[in-house]
Sequence to fold (702 residues):
Amino acid sequence: MDISFRSEYGFILAAVAVIVSAAAAYFYYRGSAAEGGLKKILTGLRFLSIFFIVLLLLSPVLSFVGITDKKPTGIILIDNSSSVRELNGKDMKELIEKARLASGGGEVRTFVFSDGITGELSGKSAEQITSDSSSAGKTNLSKAFQDLKLMLPDENISSVTVISDGILNEGGNPLQSALRVGSPVNFILAGDTGKSRDISLTDVLYGKNAFIESSVPVSAVISSNGFEGTLNIRLTEDGKLIDSRTVNIIQGRTKYNADFTVSSPVTRTAHYRIEIDSVEGEKTLKNNSADFFIRFTDNRFKMLVISGGPSSDLAFIKEQVSRIKNFDAEFRTQKSPSEFYEGSFPDLAVFDVIMLAGFPTSATDEGALNAVKVAAERTGKPIIFFGSRNTDYGRLKALEDRLPFIAENYSDQESETKLEALSGTGQTAYRDVEMLSKAARLPGIFITGTAFSAKPDAQTILVASGGNRPALLISAANDRRSAAFLPYGIYKWRLGGNAAEAEEFLGYIVSTAASAVVRKDAGKKFNVETVRPVFPVGGKAEFTGAITGLEIKGGEKITLRIKGPEQTKELEMVRVSDNKFQLSDPVTSPGVYEYEAELISEGRGVEKITGKFLAGEDNFEYLETQPDPSVMNELANSTGGRRLDVMSNDEITATAGSNRTTNQSGQLTSKSFDLNINPYYLGLVILLLCTEWFLRKRNNMP
Fold:
């Protein structure tokens, strides 16, 4: 038997640990009362105790490698997810027979997996494979390898052959789990690798939470294979058609976006559904639609708008801010260096966000500017900045650390400019490409000659034409939640003949900036959400909860009231840590479910949250229908396995036979022990410390 020792930090640090432990033990006993052999023994015990304790920090692993004479067994893992079973499972019986050849005629055990191993097949019949609705929407090969290792810890596994389409949507890359099994991993790619005709709604980008009266962007990501022509995309809200888009599918391009905007005037959870036209000859229609929910809240937040003086721009901004119901806004318009028309300067601690509209100017009092700086630095108060002709960028430099841009080479010169939307902003708060495109249709406004540049953590949304200088920027960094609109003269937008469009555009800029920089959970004591918006009937709805704004005193709990089409349940979420909760509950009937979660602390209700989810056909497993060999190839190459579906039966048999000859004499087996969690190792450390203590007391040493 071979014994090996390894550490992820290397043996250089282990050598350092020896030196440190020896030095500590030597200096500790150098001047002690112990003499002769006792002093050497105590020094040695102290050295070993310190060394073994320090060694734990290096995550040591002790491995024993030997040879077993147990009969080798071949393992077959069959992907039992919906996509394989329904789309690619027509020839499963032949695929199983091909996989059995890889065992070289030895014993074979066959398991099915989806979210880990879900069962074992007896005999050779593929008809035994049945649907497990609770996990059929998941393909977690990592967990399957982990389950295999736990189920067969001492088995002499000659090889593992995986039958799958290679589309893994849970558990991440399975390579590390496969390596722990210690056997070659072969695979058979299930399904047609040709370009089957299919239209798929592969993703929907949206925010789960939004404010009422705000424009919420929704972007549908569409994938097309083998089709050219026009597609209609429809958006419904609570079953009613509210909007539609048309996308032209062209040859050579597979990914498209359709962008929408939704809103709600009242507090509620709205049910949305996006549907795409079906085309003749599609591989499946189950990926042509998607359901999702958005929770609209009336969580009003206080905004302070500080301006450098009265102006037409300020009047336009004030009008739009006052229209947004979620904004409880106060205004302070500078009258003199230290006076404001609306009254004294308020306490900034009570506000959730500060908007600077043409502030500061050269006449601004230092007290007001310093108050904003202190509030931003000490409490992380988010800032929304609007430029103006009279802004003093030299004095604004005091707030530069809290803003998304840098201003240099200050200049009083101004030039007229139009605005253009940058492409690739779909992953930011400003996802509504159609709304942003309105900027180019609005009249020209002005921008100062000062040189502006975006900070590394800020994204530029709009630019000024003729030089691509940043115009609208946003930063969602934890230490710099801010937005900035640098041009001015926006009053001209309403003079261009379409005042309604100008008002809508400014309202979108302001409300979206505020939604992005102000934390939506600010002031919330807890949160509860479903893991996905749709769960399969017969499966389980999964909830996660977290206490976010309440002092943990112990005894807190979250109760859940779930109202379905046929019954109402009262449940309590399972506490998994101080502030984390989870719950899984079966769903037996199709339809929309409503839930109400309540946080209870010290025996009383603290706060409630409501939401919805759908029980129906979950298309999560059908978003990608084209078999993908990339991950499976990595597994085979790293473990010495092969791709069997591209080999003839004779080639598989010949290769398996040669491998079997080497296996008949024995198989390498290995066991590893993580010493930092091994009770014997920890017991040794305790024994050393106790022995040293006993000897010290026996010899009257302190």
